[in-house]
């Protein structure tokens, strides 16, 4: 209970003699808690220390004791440093390979996106189709702009008649672009066709915009509906009247040797020549067939087929070999691969510095990567330029290192940049 002390009682009653000395509002001078009635408190026993005090795990040690660093013996110090250097090298190799794998993965994702964008650019929507028009008739009508891969009409399940629209997919995006310009409003079966891009192409599409922007850097012309008996030489002789040609290539028919597919690309040295050729030759009757000529909208190195993952195994392998050769031409190798230098058991920490010092005689060495495998050791030396790598390859091939004949080869730059060190 609440109360204040006085000389007569601890009952919590206020003394009349002290009422005048209280606070002006009548509150007590001192407020305290009074213990409830109960047993008397028990006094605590007092103990004296008779033995030594033992410090436990929770004892607070002096700060100076924590700062004392034990002295390393010479042998243990060398062992610590050797293990640390080996660990650092292993982590460095893992970091480099991880970076290369990430770069390769990003390149693959970008390649798939570009291939998907090309597939979108190669499809067109065809509406307002007459009831008696078939898929075969549509294919024949659009075939003059390029190879038609598929023509799919929408059919009504109840009546088994088409709904008046279709999607046409070409081999090339350029064929689809020309078909939209040339076939929109074209009359088949008494009705004017409505031809446009499918509505599922988002606008703007950054990947498509990038392809078109890269394609605009080249003065390339797409030519379709070429007579099957005309050759590249004859086609070149016609189009070179508008300016100097860089290349003239008709797409070969994969099923018939020596026969082209009726379309191809012509590249001029100047964009003005390409514009003049398109303006003059589009719709020109060459050998009884009207040429379809338009601006190439994609760069020459972009794949025009499905993504690599969707290709059959044999086609994927063939494409990989072709791309390797192209990359070798575009980017000369700057990496030297040394094999049969040491075994995994003989690998030591001095190999990297020895290889770097020896190869520095032939060019500027950027880094040395040592890949230890189960039964072999591969040493990769990256030079600043291809000349240093080639000179080192010629000098290192056939030399002996520790009684072993070294095998030296140039490593393909594409594989190195993709993080593939196993080829």
TrEMBL record:
<keyword id="KW-0539">Nucleus</keyword>
<dbReference type="GO" id="GO:0071013">
    <property type="term" value="C:catalytic step 2 spliceosome"/>
</dbReference>
<keyword id="KW-0507">mRNA processing</keyword>
<dbReference type="Pfam" id="PF00076">
    <property type="entry name" value="RRM_1"/>
</dbReference>
<keyword id="KW-0694">RNA-binding</keyword>
<dbReference type="InterPro" id="IPR000504">
    <property type="entry name" value="RRM_dom"/>
</dbReference>
<feature type="domain" description="RRM">
    <location>
        <begin position="122"/>
        <end position="200"/>
    </location>
</feature>
<feature type="region of interest" description="Disordered">
    <location>
        <begin position="1"/>
        <end position="33"/>
    </location>
</feature>
<dbReference type="GO" id="GO:0000381">
    <property type="term" value="P:regulation of alternative mRNA splicing, via spliceosome"/>
</dbReference>
<dbReference type="InterPro" id="IPR051974">
    <property type="entry name" value="PUF60_regulator"/>
</dbReference>
<dbReference type="InterPro" id="IPR012677">
    <property type="entry name" value="Nucleotide-bd_a/b_plait_sf"/>
</dbReference>
<dbReference type="GO" id="GO:0006376">
    <property type="term" value="P:mRNA splice site recognition"/>
</dbReference>
<dbReference type="InterPro" id="IPR035979">
    <property type="entry name" value="RBD_domain_sf"/>
</dbReference>
<protein>
    <submittedName>
        <fullName>Poly(U)-binding-splicing factor PUF60</fullName>
    </submittedName>
</protein>
<feature type="compositionally biased region" description="Low complexity">
    <location>
        <begin position="1"/>
        <end position="21"/>
    </location>
</feature>
<dbReference type="GO" id="GO:0071011">
    <property type="term" value="C:precatalytic spliceosome"/>
</dbReference>
<keyword id="KW-0508">mRNA splicing</keyword>
<feature type="domain" description="RRM">
    <location>
        <begin position="334"/>
        <end position="413"/>
    </location>
</feature>
<dbReference type="InterPro" id="IPR003954">
    <property type="entry name" value="RRM_euk-type"/>
</dbReference>
<dbReference type="GO" id="GO:0000380">
    <property type="term" value="P:alternative mRNA splicing, via spliceosome"/>
</dbReference>
<dbReference type="GO" id="GO:0003723">
    <property type="term" value="F:RNA binding"/>
</dbReference>
<feature type="domain" description="RRM">
    <location>
        <begin position="219"/>
        <end position="298"/>
    </location>
</feature>
């Amino acid at each position: 209970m609440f109360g204040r002390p006085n000389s007569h009682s601890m009952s919590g009653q206020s003394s009349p003699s002290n009422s005048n000395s209280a606070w002006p509002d009548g509150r007590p001078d001192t407020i305290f808690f009074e213990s409830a009635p109960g047993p008397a408190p028990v006094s605590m026993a007092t103990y004296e220390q008779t033995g030594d005090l033992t410090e436990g795990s929770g004892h607070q040690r002096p700060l100076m004791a924590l700062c004392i660093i034990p002295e390393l013996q010479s042998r243990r110090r060398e062992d610590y440093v050797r293990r640390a250097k080996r660990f650092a090298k292993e982590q460095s190799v893992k970091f480099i390979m991880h970076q290369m794998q990430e770069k390769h993965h990003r390149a693959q994702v970008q390649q798939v996106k570009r291939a998907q964008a090309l597939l979108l650019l190669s499809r067109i929507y065809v509406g307002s189709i007459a009831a008696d028009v078939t898929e075969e008739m549509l294919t024949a009508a659009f075939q003059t702009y390029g190879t038609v891969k598929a023509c799919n009409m929408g059919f009504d399940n109840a009546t088994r008649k088409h709904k008046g629209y279709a999607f046409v997919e070409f081999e090339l995006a350029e064929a689809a672009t020309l078909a939209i310009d040339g076939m929109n409003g074209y009359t088949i079966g008494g009705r004017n066709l409505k031809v446009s891009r499918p509505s599922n192409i988002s606008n703007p599409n950054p990947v498509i915009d990038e392809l078109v922007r890269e394609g605009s850097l080249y003065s390339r012309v797409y030519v379709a509906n070429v007579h099957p008996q005309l050759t590249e030489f004859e086609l070149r002789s016609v189009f070179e009247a508008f300016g100097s040609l860089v290349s003239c290539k008709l797409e070969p028919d994969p099923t018939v040797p020596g026969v082209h597919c009726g379309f191809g690309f012509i590249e001029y040295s100047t964009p003005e020549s390409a514009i003049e050729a398109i303006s003059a030759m589009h719709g020109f009757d060459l050998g009884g067939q009207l040429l379809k000529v338009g601006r190439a909208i994609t760069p020459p190195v972009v794949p025009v087929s499905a993504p690599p993952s969707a290709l059959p195994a044999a086609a994927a392998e063939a494409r990989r070999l072709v791309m390797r050769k192209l990359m070798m031409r575009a980017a000369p190798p700057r990496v030297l691969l040394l094999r049969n230098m040491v075994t995994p058991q003989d690998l030591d920490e001095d190999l990297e510095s020895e290889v770097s010092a020896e190869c520095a005689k032939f060019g500027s060495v950027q880094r040395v990567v040592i890949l230890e495998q189960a039964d072999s050791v591969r040493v990769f030396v990256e030079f600043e330029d291809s000349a240093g790598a080639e000179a080192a390859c010629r000098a290192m091939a056939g030399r002996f290192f520790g009684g072993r004949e070294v095998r030296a080869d140039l490593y393909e730059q594409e594989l190195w940049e993709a993080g593939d060190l196993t080829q």
